[in-house]
Design a protein that fits this description.
286 residues, alpha/beta, TIM Barrel, 8-stranded parallel beta barrel, 11 helices, 8 strands, 16% strand, binds flavin-adenine dinucleotide
Length: 286
């Protein structure tokens, strides 16, 4: 599916899932997808080898299921830092076989325990390769409202984002962020740089204090005082914590929609209950 068509005239609402941690247990994703598919998101994306862990074929298998069983557009994440050209060719074959035509092309997380392969160093190289090798595939890519932690500067990160668009990315999904002002400042910089592709805001509802602190330390996102107060006050009261964090995510999304965001990408953490609550609260605004 051509991404521009999806964004034509409405605010996209999409959801991300990840494959079950244990290879060969793909069946356990079904109950998550049963619940998430009920809200009919515009697409569901599935991660690939996240955390720098070796990937198996489960991303493609799950994307096939999203398309065939639930009738929803799947986007398969695909990373390149631990894949050779031959590996990518094999995955293109699997995607073709499964009828999956949309890919989120990424460099991938580096993992000290896995020696990177040397055919691709950056997502833009994967995007160019896919453009030439599989022109029927529509390509999305990642962006970073608070700047990717490996970047020389915020300016270079934006220029490399533009390069990803020039290489063939049609759409961007942002890293999680908790202060919408960071997203608006970033969006303004992309416009100044002449980036035209739609940018979805990545929203992660917080489900645990230690988990989110680990996540932000890895991805370079910051925690504003307003969220920090919630994490500290309710960390030992699970029900209050869940309610407060859900309200925080909904508040963020309402503000983004009111500010004409192109789309909301919900990091669902395979929790249909959270996806349903959030969608229910904002669906009339989309
Ligand atoms: P790149 O675009 O290559 O950028 C990485 C860094 O290199 C940036 O600092 C950039 O400014 C710089 N850079 C880019 N191009 C060049 C260049 N030509 N020369 C010099 N510097 C350059 N990881 C997974 O392993 N699996 C997943 O499924 C996954 N899904 C994700 C989904 C989303 C929406 C996001 C935001 C991230 C996801 N990640 C995933 C994490 C991602 O792989 C990491 O953030 C990774 O560190 C960077 O990936 P990238 O594609 O943005 O890399």
């Amino acid at each position: 599916m051509q991404m521009q068509k999806l964004f034509n005239g409405h605010t996209v609402f999409s959801v991300e899932v990840f494959p079950p941690k244990k290879p060969g247990t793909i069946g356990s994703i079904t109950s998550a997808l049963d619940g998430i598919s009920g809200i009919k998101p515009d697409f569901i994306s599935c991660t690939y080898g996240a955390g720098g862990n070796p990937a198996d074929t489960s991303t493609v298998d799950i994307c096939r299921m999203i398309k065939e069983k639930y009738g929803i557009l799947p986007i398969a994440h695909l990373t390149c830092v631990n894949n050779s050209r031959e590996d990518i060719d094999n995955i293109i074959g699997l995607l073709d076989n499964a009828g999956v035509t949309n890919v989120l092309a990424l460099r991938g997380d580096k993992n000290d325990k896995v020696k990177p392969k040397e055919d691709f160093f950056h997502a833009s190289e994967l995007i160019s390769y896919l453009r030439q090798k599989a022109p029927h595939i529509h390509i999305s890519a990642a962006c970073y409202p608070e700047t990717h932690p490996d970047s020389e500067s915020a300016v270079s990160d934006i220029l490399y984002l533009k390069e990803k668009e020039q290489c063939g990315a049609e759409h961007f999904i942002s890293q999680l962020f908790f202060d919408n002002e960071d997203f608006y400042a970033f969006r303004e910089k992309t416009l100044i740089a002449g980036i035209k592709s739609p940018i979805e805001a990545g929203i992660m509802p917080v489900t645990g204090k230690s988990g989110i602190l680990r996540m932000v330390s890895m991805c370079g996102a910051s925690i504003p005082k307003k969220l920090s107060r919630i994490l500290n006050k309710y960390e030992n009261d699970p029900r209050a914590f869940a309610d407060a964090c859900l309200a925080y995510a909904i508040d963020q999304i309402i503000d983004l929609i009111a500010n004409d965001v192109d789309g909301i990408h919900l990091y669902s953490m395979n929790r249909p209950d959270i996806a349903q609550s959030i969608y229910g609260a904002v669906k009339n605004m989309l």
